[in-house]
Amino acid sequence: MVKDRLDIIYEDKDLIVVNKPAHLLTIATEDEKINTLYHKVYVYLKKKNKNNKVFIVHRLDRDTSGVVLFAKNEKMKNALQDNWNDIVKKREYLGIVEGFVEPLKKRITEYLLETQTLLTYASKDGKGKEAITEYEVIRRTKSHSILKINIYTGRKNQIRVAMQNIGHPIIGDKKYDATKNPLRRLCLHATTLELIDPRTKELLHFEAKIPKEFAIFEK
Fold this sequence. Notes:
Layout: E1 8-11, E2 15-20, H1 37-48, E3 55-56, E4 65-71, H2 74-81, H3 84-87, E5 88-98, E6 105-114, E7 120-122, E8 129-140, E9 144-151, H4 158-165, E10 188-196, E11 203-207
Parallel strand pairs: 4-10
Antiparallel strand pairs: 1-2, 2-4, 3-4, 5-9, 5-10, 6-7, 6-8, 8-9, 10-11
């Protein structure tokens, strides 16, 4: 995305899917109302037709890039949100973490709570919201590992907490104990979203291209 140009992955009369850049909020907060992905999509759709609307369906952290889906009407928003856990078939990420990860593949089940300062952490007594995260190593060196990560629940910061707790924080994630930040961004990207179209019952597949800057980790 260059300035306010949206990187649109897919669009039809009910949906718009965008590749969100890092460092951009998905939706507004008390401190930031304008510089958000939602607002950029809103402006884009209003320019096409002043009667167009946009509705948030899910979100990514400010520092995570990748696939974000919006609905263009309330009927579609409700059809997606009310059945989200049933209709979503894949939420896949590319994560680059510190260190040499082993084993090559693992499923991590945790129960997440939040501190008063809004820091997510895994409880030690099974209290909290269940978070299921699975990773598979694509490539690894002594300094870092590139992981394909799938989530089976949509908890706040769940990938970041899971990686911290196995001793391999996401590169650039100072909040969760990362010591390196070569790209001045969180090295976490939502690559793939697959879900059943509530209109047709067919499988929709959306994919966001890998950020070019991640190529330094392939060397």
